[in-house]
Amino acid sequence: MTKRVVSTLAAGLLAASFLTACSTDSTGGGDGRLVMGFAQVGAESGWRTANTKSVQDAAKSAGVTLKFSDAQQKQENQIKAIRSFIQQRVDVIAFSPVVESGWDTVLKEAKNAKIPVVLTDRAIDSKDTSLYRTFLGSDFVEEGKKAGEWLVGEYKGKNEPVNIVELQGTTGSAPANDRRSGFADVIKGDPKFKVVASQTGDFTRAKGKEVMQAFLKSQPDIDVLYAHNDDMALGAIQAIEEAGKKPGTDIKVISVDGIKDAFQAMADGKINVLVECNPLLGDQLMELAKKVAKGETVPTRVKVTEGVFTQDQAAAALPSRSY
Ligand code: GYE
């Protein structure tokens, strides 16, 4: 092919992609509806499944056209999805960052393209807060603290050492970092609490079980399991039972999220306490997206309200859990 043919072809391609971009832009998705590109973390947990459903349902009822992408817990996939949303000239990009760092470049691209970004569920640790308009999600440090406070109360007045194993969420993710530090902050006040092993279980049941099996082999005396989410706790419970121990009694179990399966396990006495993390963010997200797309000012941080549930409340709370 001659140079000329190549450049003519390239020009043609450019014009074609420009036309596609323009037609999406000028029609606002073809029917004047707001178009949102949503880059989800993955489908790693019950929490995530409920979160995805909430976003999809909310988009439908808010009349928002949703372009949904599942990153399978990989940052590079999320970056690709965001770039493709920029290319498609969506009205708003929303995403739940799989890890905290490494977003500046792609978010600058969105900013240059004048597409507002809403962080949902998880935050990023960039110093440049102009890269996103708002962050809607839970306070994970607070959740970790609530887990620690329950433990402190549970062992009040006892002086023997309390050996804790910790199943961390996805390495580098905001909920893993914050649930770990919030918990550590509270228990450090009393030297009887010792985290004897702490490792990632990637927020999944399979990994939670596998890592708990390893903990049970390497740690002769485990009093407490602190799992950063329910799926890992549920996997670990299987490992504890297969090792001939009673979860909830021989090893106390603290978990975070509050999905239905975990409430069931708590009603069965296998989980001692659940720190709630609410995945139903869809409606709030659509509301914020509509505002930022119109250029309205929104608060830079929107928190989700949540509670703590103990075993005596489990059976009563179970029927009303929607996820
Ligand atoms: O706790 C866990 C999920 O980011 C709050 O991600 C979310 C966490 C949730 O995989 O189950």
CATH superfamily membership of the largest domain: Response regulator
| Secondary structural class | alpha/beta
Hetero groups in this structure are:
beta-D-fucofuranose
Largest β-sheet summary: 6 strands, parallel
Low-confidence stretches at least 5 residues in length (pLDDT < 50)? 1-28
Helix content, binned percent: 40-55%
The CATH class assignment of the largest domain is Alpha Beta
Mean pLDDT metric: 92
Strands across the major sheet, in which order? 2-1-3-4-5-11
Percent of sequence in beta strands: 15-25%
Question: How are the elements arranged and paired?
Answer:
Blueprint: H1 3-27, E1 35-40, H2 46-62, E2 65-70, H3 75-87, E3 92-95, H4 104-112, E4 117-120, E5 134-137, H5 140-154, E6 162-168, H6 174-187, E7 193-200, H7 205-218, E8 224-227, H8 230-242, E9 252-257, H9 260-267, E10 273-276, H10 282-293, E11 301-303, E12 308-310, H11 311-317
Parallel strand pairs: 1-2, 1-3, 3-4, 4-5, 5-11, 6-7, 6-8, 8-9, 9-10
Antiparallel strand pairs: 10-12
Bound molecules: beta-D-fucofuranose.
